[in-house]
Amino acid sequence: MRLNELLSVKGINKTFGATKAVRDLSFAVREGEIFGLLGPNGAGKSTTIRCILGIILPDGGEISFSFAEKGTSRRHIGYLPEERGLYKDVPVLDIILYLASLKNYPLDKAKQRAEVLLERFGLSKKGKAKVEELSKGMAQKVQFIASIIHEPKLLILDEPFSGLDPVSQDVLKAEVRALAAQGTAILLSAHQMHLVEELCDRISLINQGQQAVYGRMSEIKARYAEQKCIIHGDNSRVNFERLPGVRRVERDTARTTLYLQGGLDVPDLLKALPVGTEISEMRIERISLHDIFVNVAQGGAAHVAR
Amino acid sequence: MWRDSLKVARWEALKMLKNPSFIISILLTPIIMLVFGGIPALLERIDAEQPFRLFVIDQLGVYSTLREMSPPDLNIELVRYDGSVATLTEEVRGASTQGFVVLDQAALAARTATITLGGDGTPPLHGFSLLLSSVLRFHALQAHGVSNEVMSLALAPFHVATASLTQQADPYARIVPLIFGGLILMTIFITGIMTLQSAVTEKKDRMAEVLLSSVTPDNLMQGKILGNCVLGIVQVTAWLVFGIAAAHFFYDIPVLRYLATPNLPLIIFFALGGYVLSASVLVAMGATIEDMATATNFQSMVFLLPMLPVLFIGPVIANPNGLVAAIGSYFPFAAPGVMVMRLALSTTLTAIDIALPALAMLVLTGLMMKLAGKVFRVAMLMYGKNPTSAEMWRWIRQ
């Protein structure tokens, strides 16, 4: 394990009956980094996270933490699960302090931190309120606070932005960035690709339990340095498929997307557009993480790998 | 780590103790039991205060004797009637508090006197029936010239009493520990259901995954069992205080003295064992339930396991050293309850009679906790459906 790697996952496998949920998955999360663990539903993300947390044991492979002896890692990990919930009939502060106590975090420090964090998230007057009295967004913030109350070395966030309004998303993004800046290693699983692009330093994109893409965000974008040309207009009868450098064409009623091969000269493409192409609006974009994700989700790892 | 289990236990106990509805239920239960026990008797007394008027058509000349010997607490007003049976029948028809009896030679010959009731209901006539029976037998003997002195001697009732070489003569010495045992069995059931509800709620509130990221499933399960055990003890203590005060105040029964028997620690030991056994199964079953309303038939049947001792109550009270009691002492899930009853009722249990069921209970409890732990750790993370019994069996075998 490299010095700044707080979490190292090496070749883990997990099978449930006949289903191979995770296959030979490896990645590492470093101190102060925001690492994206991405994949479509059922890809094996939750299973991987549960293995890291020790809730279930992998069938093979190794998971190690630089910050804890074997068996004590739970104390230093914060976790916000996708299946969110809190005791409905219990005051907010009681729940936060209970979860802090389960992490062996000192009670007086937990009280102080809870006050600060509730204040930061605009919930300073809600400490004694029962969870059932809070809005869904507020409850989600409380659960986030509970996941970081014990100053974890590794924070695992599973879909932290789902259900939050844009303002709350910004607050959470800022908090996640601040935690990373303080040295917390963050493992983020999310389906909002624009947020992942914005936040993550490195990602692992998995599909059907296998790693499809892994590395720094900038490297991945460079590796998949393809572009797409989006043309608005009725071009249902225009044949774009035979254009040089066009790898794939997607059409809907009033829009056509041409996926271009890497290194294609855009002016050459424009010159080659067939006569009669209707263009009310046209954009050239680099393919996004969203496109990579959709490709992987639809076609598996091999589809993306070139 | 037991420290984690203790933290969970503390939380489970405090969460409920801070809950006003739990406190109210502890206080209300004895009051409700008192109300349900007392109100029917009170209502019965309201009706009973109105005396039952019994007309007597006396052709044997026993009316005066009957009237003299009839004590006031029978609450029967005797009225001699000289008219016809047909007229009297019409007179009392429909009146629930009136009736008549014809005492004539035919009744004497048939050795049957029929009290005809005017209306619906069953007035308390048992005492009067015994009195009338005595008077008629007296009359029959008198007709054969038997002297009054001999008749009195012959008809004076003989009391047949029982005495035991082993049991104390004072019935409270057996009844009080038995009631205490019943209270404990009831608490085992209620508290076991509380652990089940705790697991269901935690799963329903989606708290399970957060908790399991901090403590092991075994710690979580043990904490729940322990925490709810504390609540059960609080509950029993509250009810005992209430019961002891009520028994002392209303009946002058020194409950504490009767409870302070050498068997009390053993009763508590078997009660705790029974609780852990039931609670471990129920908490695991709670983890398999998405919502109480969606519990399957199999799950519902498991809920009833802690009720098994009820099947043995009759035979064990009849003979705490009999074959059924002996078998029940080893019968899974019934054994703790049966042993609580046997310890309260029997004075001849040997050390082996106690030690072997205790050992069997400990082994079964340990095994059940292990199996329940296997179900609990998988089921708590299962969302969206209740597992089938086949799935649970597969988890147990893994």
Outline of the structure:
With 306 residues, chain A is of the alpha/beta class. Helix content of chain A is 32%, strand content 28%.
Can you describe this structure?
The complex is a heterodimer of chains A (306) and B (398). Chain A has helices at residues 45-53, 92-102, 107-120, 136-148, 166-181, 193-199, 217-223, 266-272, 289-299, 301-304; strands at 5-16, 19-30, 34-38, 60-65, 77-80, 154-158, 185-189, 202-207, 210-216, 227-232, 246-252, 255-260, 281-286. Chain A is α/β, with parallel strands linked by helices. Chain A folds into two domains: 5-221, Rossmann fold (3-Layer(aba) Sandwich), CATH 3.40.50.300; 225-286, Alpha-Beta Plaits (2-Layer Sandwich), CATH 3.30.70. In chain A, the strands form three sheets. A six-stranded mixed sheet of chain A has the order 5-6-7-3-8-9, sandwiched between helices. In chain A, β11 (246-252) and β12 (255-260) form a beta hairpin. In chain A, α2 crosses α3 (107-120) and α2 (92-102) runs parallel beside α4 (136-148). The longest helix of chain A has 16 residues, at 166-181. Residues 300-306 of chain A have low confidence and may be disordered. With 398 residues, chain B is mostly helical. Chain B folds into two domains: 53-155, 3-Layer(aba) Sandwich (D-Maltodextrin-Binding Protein, domain 2); 168-397, no CATH class. Chain B is 66% helix and 5% strand. Chain B is built from 18 helices and four strands. Chain B has helices at residues 2-17, 20-48, 63-69, 85-92, 105-110, 126-143, 148-155, 172-204, 208-212, 217-251, 255-259, 264-287, 297-303, 313-318, 323-328, 335-345, 351-379, 389-397, and strands at residues 52-58, 76-80, 98-103, 115-117. In chain B, α2 (20-48) runs parallel beside α10. Chain B is elongated, with a radius of gyration of 30 Å.
